[in-house]
Amino acid sequence: MRAIRLTRKKGRPVMLYVKDEPVTCGEKTTGSQAHDFMQWWSEECAKHNISCPYDVYGVRLAKKLLEEYGMERLQRMVKHFLMAYGPELRKPDETRRLIYFGQKRKEIETEIKEMGLWL
User: Fold this and answer.
1) Where are the strands (E) in the chain, listed by range?
2) Which of 115, 17, 3, 98 lies closest to 54, judged by CA?
3) How many CB atoms lie within 10 A of CB 68?
4) From CA 92, how far away is CA 95, in angstroms rounded?
5) ∠ at Cα 35 (88, 107), nearest 5°?
6) What is the tens place of the pLDDT at every residue in 59-72?
7) What is the mean pLDDT of the chain?
8) Measured on CA atoms in the order 24, 28, 31, 35, is the torsion positive or negative?
9) Cα(68)–Cα(37) distance, rounded to whole angstroms?
10) What is the distance between the alpha carbons of residues 74 and 55, in angstroms, rounded to a whole number?
């Protein structure tokens, strides 16, 4: 997958057409695994009556999360996240749900470990 990255060079805006960063650690995650996860994420959000926009940044984040946790652990964390933060995620102004999950993932991991449900 390729993406457009906006950056600044010598104070001027520059648009770069870049490839995905190479996978350097953890399990090798393909783009199709990230897309599969995003499809699953959308279905889980729909079950909880939460809208879920699908974007390129979400696929990139999913790929990094899959490398860090693997599919089974990540799915368990997402289910916990959607149940715990559902009311907050249903707010109409909240649109970056996967990013919010990425920010809360360490808290969620700790909660799941404390409950004895970590794989």
Assistant:
1) 2-9, 12-19
2) 98
3) 16
4) 7
5) 35
6) 788 888 888 888 88
7) 75
8) negative
9) 14
10) 19
**Residues facing 7 on adjacent strands:** 14
Query: Using the 8-state DSSP alphabet, how is residue 19 labeled?
Result: E
Share of the chain above pLDDT 70, in %: 70
What are the tokens at 29? 């995650």
Q: Which of 94, 101, 90 is nearest to 61 (CA)?
A: 101
> What is the rounded distance in angstroms from the CA atom of residue 64 to the CA atom of residue 104?
15
DSSP state of 23: P
Closest residue by Cα to residue 69 from 108, 11, 14, 116: 108
Q: What are phi and psi of 5, to 5 degrees?
A: -115, 130
pTM over 0.90: no
Distant-in-sequence, close-in-space partners of 93: CB < 8 Å, separation ≥ 6: none
Tokens of 45: 């959000």
Query: What are the distances in angstroms from CA 92 to CA 19, 42, 49, 96?
Result: 33, 16, 12, 11
